[in-house]
Amino acid sequence: MLRALVGLTAAILSCAVWSCGASATILYGYRSACISGCNNIGLLPGSPVGGVIGFQDNLVKPNATISTGELFAPGAVTQFGFGFGDQGVGGPSDRVPIDASVTFNSTTSAAVAFVIDAGSTAQEGTEAVISPTNWAVLVPLVPFGPVLGGPGTLTRITPIDEPAGAMVLASALVGLVVLRRRG
Known about the structure:
Layout: H1 2-18, E1 25-36, E2 48-56, E3 65-67, E4 71-72, E5 77-84, E6 87-90, E7 97-104, E8 111-119, E9 127-130, E10 135-138, E11 147-149, E12 153-156, H2 164-182
Antiparallel strand pairs: 1-2, 1-11, 1-12, 2-5, 3-7, 4-7, 5-6, 7-8, 8-9, 9-10, 10-11
């Protein structure tokens, strides 16, 4: 009985520390503001813009870089959607191309460097290019130039799992066994 409980405790702890099971998505939120050409997409200068991008959890590691090359998600990028006034880039993740390079900080709570080029490669679609220093939205077949924005951040939305809960559970199970053997 004690061996089984110790084995169960070890399994719980290892899953808590090293992620067990199927791959999940870790979401990051993008936030910035419009600077130039804002009225062309239904915004005022200074209006917020943003979006969400999701990565496979097994690829999100401290100080790691994810580089996708142009692909149609799912893949390293499991989902994404960015909104810029009346223009948006995203949708079904297997139909919209994305080229991304994202480097995470030491806690994976944010990206320290990123360039995301998302959207249609066809002439009729909207394309967005996003980085920490600025962004641009290109809307083909419209007489105005690109809409431009200022600095932006890419920060983690999905909570960072901590093994503390599993450790408390495992300690309680071991404690119950020890008490039971004494009684």
